[in-house]
Amino acid sequence: MVKMKSKKSWIRIFESVISLLIILFALIFFISNQTVKISDEEKAREILIIILYNIETNETTRNFVINNDTSNLNYSISNQINSISPNYNFSFCITLPYLTCKNFYPYELPPKKEIFSDSILISYIYNNQVNSTKLVLYIWKK
């Protein structure tokens, strides 16, 4: 009788250990997936910051935005993204600061993709008036 109870208790301990291991593996799996998502977001944020900073500080690319020169701006952004991380695609919009983007260049935004965006406001003087233009940049993994 004592042996039977001892055997049952060992089986219960074994079941508990197995269930604990299953829970730990599930937690490790979900945490590791979360880490990958965070690093993707950090990488995208870094790309956006670098490209927008370069546009903001480079007189030529600033003028592309001010003059709404989408083809040259597209070429410039494309070169920058390819040199930083070629596995990202992009789209952008140039508009007035108080408007939302409706026309995207060179691509429409893709459905069912995780899209990251950031914007800059470029101010300039034209005919003795201060004007502003907003550039919104969108990036996503290919």
Q: Roughly how many Å is the radius of gyration?
A: 26 Å
Output the strand order for the largest sheet.
1-3-2
Number of helices: 3
| pLDDT < 50 stretches | none
Overall average pLDDT: 86
- Taken in chain order, the helices and strands follow as HHHEEE
- As a percent range, the share of strand residues is 15-25%
**What is the domain tally?**
1
Biggest sheet features: 3 strands, antiparallel
State the helical fraction. Answer: 55-70%
Sum up the overall morphology in one term.
rod-shaped
| Beta strand count | 3
Span from first to last CA?
Answer: 66 Å
Secondary structure category: alpha+beta
What would you note in describing this structure?
The chain is an alpha+beta fold and 142 residues long. The protein has one domain. 56% of the residues lie in helices and 23% in strands. It has three helices and three strands. A three-stranded antiparallel β-sheet has the order 1-3-2. Strand 2 (116-126) and strand 3 (129-141) form a beta hairpin. The chain is rod-shaped and about 95 Å long.
Short description:
With about 140 residues, the protein is α+β, with helices and mostly antiparallel strands. Helix content is about 55%, strand content about 25%.
Describe the secondary-structure layout.
Layout: H1 2-57, H2 59-66, H3 70-84, E1 88-95, E2 116-126, E3 129-141
Antiparallel strand pairs: 1-3, 2-3
Helix pairs in contact: 1-2
What features would you highlight for this structure?
alpha+beta, three-stranded antiparallel sheet, 142 residues
